[in-house]
Design a protein that fits this description.
Layout lengths: L25 H13 L4 E13 L2 E7 L6 E6 L1 H4 L11 E11 L4 E11 L2 H17 L17 E6 L4 H13 L4 E6 L7 H13 L4 E8 L4 H4 L5 H9 L4 E5 L7 H5 L2 E2 L3 H8 L3 H35 L1 H4 L2 H43 L1 H6 L4 E3 L17 E5 L4 E5 L7
Parallel strand pairs: 3-5, 6-7, 6-8, 8-9, 9-10
Antiparallel strand pairs: 1-2, 1-4, 2-3, 4-5, 11-12, 12-13
């Protein structure tokens, strides 16, 4: 049955009620989609203009995402174009206030823009600064998270553009400094929409290579817009999560993408990166020579000092004339011997004097001394000394001892006390 003759009352109200026997006419689906899409609110979007055709005052643009391969057609009607300060130009980075629109006759989905503004350098710098502060507040730039570079890497991973001056600077200068250095180079896009994804893929590949000890991301100088991929949040977080130390060598000294802050080492230029990642062979040889000279001086100084010490010891009297100590000890022994002899003689003399004095005392108190003064001692026959005359008997024989000799006598007279 033709579509025009269908009764609207029997037509399904919702998509879920349609069936092969009772379908919607295509215009119904288109109208419902248009109604649904155009109920969407206005949105501010950002992108880069790939095409900009202006006809009859209207602008027909193709807007592409700055980081991914997504694009959309954008229409700017003449009434809006008249209020724009600058006309759209291919390659410009813009923000637009858009609302989706479906052209039902062809099913073409596009965006209608009610405002279009170019993104200036100041706005880009402000965005980068806000992102830099947000990532810094998370601790991605903290020094404690920085990994130390190896003193002499086995293999250096290099991410850079194909046949770029940055690659030549890094490889040539590093090879001049250390001829045995090895590189694993992965060439990627270093600007444009594919730069972030390709650099992240190369970073992941090198980070998983156990032979790669350090990774260098290098690019020559350029405009701020050209260096924006190296400030992309996803790339910055990937560098922070890498296990291998990462060196950022982007642009010139004045260029400072956010990658410089999260990298383990920031090199001002690709040439500076080559100087920072490998030592200079000539400087190392010079350092070895200086170290050998210092070692020689230290050893010679030690030997000279020890030789002087030995000479000083040999010059001491105890080693120059070893018999001196024997002679000295002999003299000391003789002095002690003489002194001990003197003390012993003095002691003997004092003892002799004491003996003589005691002998005199003994003699003075002895009975013989009494006898010498004219006294006598009378003894009975049994030898006992007569102390009391009453003890004797008349006619008893006694013995009388005098100072010189003794004699016998008989008692013929007794006179008691």
């Amino acid at each position: 049955m033709p579509m025009e003759s269908r009764n609207p009352d029997t037509m399904p109200l919702t998509a879920g009620e349609t069936s092969p026997e009772n379908p919607w006419p295509l215009r119904i689906l288109s109208e419902k989609l248009k109604q649904h899409i155009e109920n969407s609110p206005f949105s501010w979007v950002e992108g880069q203009l790939l095409e900009a055709n202006i006809r009859n005052g209207h602008a027909y643009l193709t807007l592409r995402d700055v980081d991914a391969d997504y694009s959309f057609s954008v229409t700017v009607w003449s009434s809006v174009m008249r209020g724009l300060e600058t006309k759209p130009e291919v390659g410009a980075r813009v923000v637009a206030r858009v609302k989706p629109s479906l052209y039902t006759k062809t099913g073409r989905l596009s965006l209608n823009a009610t405002d279009l503004r170019p993104v200036g350098l100041g706005e880009l710098l402000a965005r980068l600064e806000r992102l830099r502060q947000a990532l810094g507040a998370e601790g991605l730039f903290s020094p404690e998270h920085k990994k130390a570079l190896p003193v002499l890497p086995r293999t250096i991973g290099l991410i850079t553009g194909r046949d770029s001056d940055a690659q030549k600077d890094v490889v040539q200068n590093a090879t001049l400094r250390w001829p045995a250095v090895r590189f694993r180079v992965i060439n990627t896009a270093v600007q444009g929409r594919d730069a972030v994804s390709q650099v992240m893929a190369a970073l992941d590949e090198l980070d998983r290579d156990p032979q790669v000890d350090v990774i260098v991301i290098a690019r020559g100088g350029g405009a701020l817009e050209d260096l924006l991929p190296f400030s992309a949040e996803e790339l910055v977080r990937a560098v922070f999560a890498a296990h291998t130390p990462v060196v950022s060598a982007i642009g010139h000294e004045a260029d400072r993408p956010i990658l410089d802050d999260v990298a383990d080492l920031r090199a001002s230029t690709p040439t500076d990166a080559a100087k920072r990642i490998v030592p200079d062979l000539n400087e190392e040889f010079a350092g070895l020579a200086q170290a050998r000279q210092r070692l020689d001086r230290a050893v010679n100084h030690l030997l000279d000092r020890e030789a002087m010490l030995i000479s000083s010891l040999r010059a001491r009297p105890v080693l120059a004339t070893p018999e001196t100590i024997i002679t000295t000890r002999r003299e000391e022994l003789m002095r002690w011997k003489e002194r001990s002899g003197q003390l012993l003689r003095h002691r003997v003399e004092r003892a002799q004097d004491e003996i003589r004095h005691l002998a005199l005392q003994v003699r003075a108190l002895s009975p013989q001394q009494t006898l010498d003064r004219g006294y006598s001692v009378t003894q009975r026959a049994d030898g006992s000394v007569v102390r009391d005359a009453a003890e004797l008997h008349l006619g008893e024989a006694v013995q009388v001892r005098v100072a010189a000799g003794k004699f016998g006598a008989a008692v013929n007279h007794i006179e008691p006390q």
